[in-house]
Amino acid sequence: MSSSIGDFYRRIIFESGGILNDDTLINGYSISQIKEDVMLQVNFTHISKQMPFKSVQLKQVLCNTVDANGNPLPHVYSEVSRAFSNVIPLKCAHLNPRSKVQHGYSTLHGGKYYDGKEFIKIESMEAHPYLTNNLVKTRIKSEDKQKLLQELKLSGIRECTLFPEMEYQAKDIREKYTNKFGV
Description:
Blueprint: H1 5-14, E1 25-26, E2 29-30, H2 31-36, H3 38-45, E3 56-61, E4 75-79, E5 87-91, H4 97-101, E6 105-109, E7 112-114, E8 117-120, H5 145-154, H6 159-162, H7 166-177
């Protein structure tokens, strides 16, 4: 987690662990250029500069490839800045009872805000074509909430089945065996 814009750039330039190599372009500058040029480093990592996040491009080496004129094309750059904004569905490991009974699915959301201002655009789940068939957003009217909760309860889905911890089990037993007068 980056605490500032400068810290964000510092981490992707110096600590990306091989994911972004020295040929990667950040806002048009290669990571090797930024590492070698102190003024570029200051522009990216100094807190007061606030360098906007425009693009990240990965260099892809091409073998035996030529352009339209027959000239060798040794590499191309692919824009990957959207990866910083993506919503990614994850199937989590069943490391605890709650994730197991809930089937362990969640989402990881990209985007970034610093000092209340959007630094990296946050994409909505509906904007991603690969999620449209995997995630469904459902709006429930407030007046239908009790009816829906009753239908779920009749289907065997209650708070204690989604949250298997002791306090939810105890709450379910208490509600089941307490009459409407609290006795």
